[in-house]
Specification:
elongated; Rossmann fold; alpha/beta
């Protein structure tokens, strides 16, 4: 459904510090998420991407600082990695949908299920007999039924085949609300994100462009770092040479 209008500030992370045991994930991290942002969070495994989504949703409490949704009419829908586990395995696919939208016609429900690759007799399958990918698609379909202006998606493409991924990409591109996405699927990120936020050394580094822009900037940063290292190396060599010259001069004067 259309995204209800929200305030400018969709979510905010302020002076956030959080750790698991000895591992520090965030250290004084800050980020403002505004209406229209489609942010993909990137970083190595264990950097805290999924944890950050849970902190924003209020499922976890930060050690210090704050993370949460904006105050003005922000309605969030959250898709967890294990979202499919919350489905009632004894119900059929179509009954599961009807429970969420009892006033819809069968044509409307079957049309939506068709968009999620459930066609013909597949809609009458018991949820318990669905594959992992089918369960993930059903869980996504259920999540997208409710009007919201913030989608929080943790690995939404896991278990999805190519047609289902393309359907989700299309739905997100047409969506007028904000989205926070964690995904290992770089192609998916390149299709849906308009900002990239890298979790780096406990901070949130914002790249104000899509994934191609992020890659370009990372290459520039890498080249600049390499050039600085080479310059430092050259300077160290020149200094060593000067010191050697001075030592020779001093030895010659001492001998004289």
């Amino acid at each position: 459904p259309p995204a209800p209008r929200s305030g400018r500030l969709i979510a905010e992370i302020k002076d956030l510090s959080h750790s698991y045991g000895e591992q520090i994930l965030f250290l004084g991290a800050n980020l403002e998420i505004e209406r229209g942002d489609r942010i993909a969070f990137v970083g190595p495994n264990g950097a805290g991407k999924s944890t950050l989504l849970r902190l924003v949703m209020g499922i976890e409490t930060p050690d210090e600082g704050s993370a949460g949704l904006g105050e003005h009419n922000v309605i969030a829908s959250y898709f967890e990695q294990n979202q499919a586990e919350a489905l009632d395995l004894s119900k059929t696919v179509i009954d599961t949908m009807f429970e969420a939208v009892p006033d819809w016609t069968q044509t409307q429900v079957r049309s939506l299920l068709g968009s999620f690759c459930f066609s013909n007799d597949a809609v009458f399958k018991e949820v318990g007999k669905l594959s992992g990918g089918e369960k993930a698609r059903l869980a996504l379909a259920l999540m997208l039924l409710s009007p919201c202006n913030l989608l929080v998606l943790d690995e939404p493409t896991n278990h999805l085949d190519i047609p289902a991924k393309e359907m989700l990409e299309g739905a997100l591109r047409d969506y007028e609300g904000a989205a926070l996405v964690v995904s290992h699927d770089r192609y998916f990120i390149s299709r849906v994100a308009n900002k990239i936020v890298e979790i780096r050394d406990g901070e949130l580094v914002v790249y104000r462009g899509d994934y191609a822009y992020y890659r370009e900037k990372k290459a520039e940063e890498s080249a600049a770092t390499q050039a600085a290292l080479e310059a430092a190396e050259q300077e160290a060599k020149r200094k060593a040479k000067r010191d050697k010259q001075k030592a020779k001069e001093a030895a010659r004067k001492s001998a004289a």
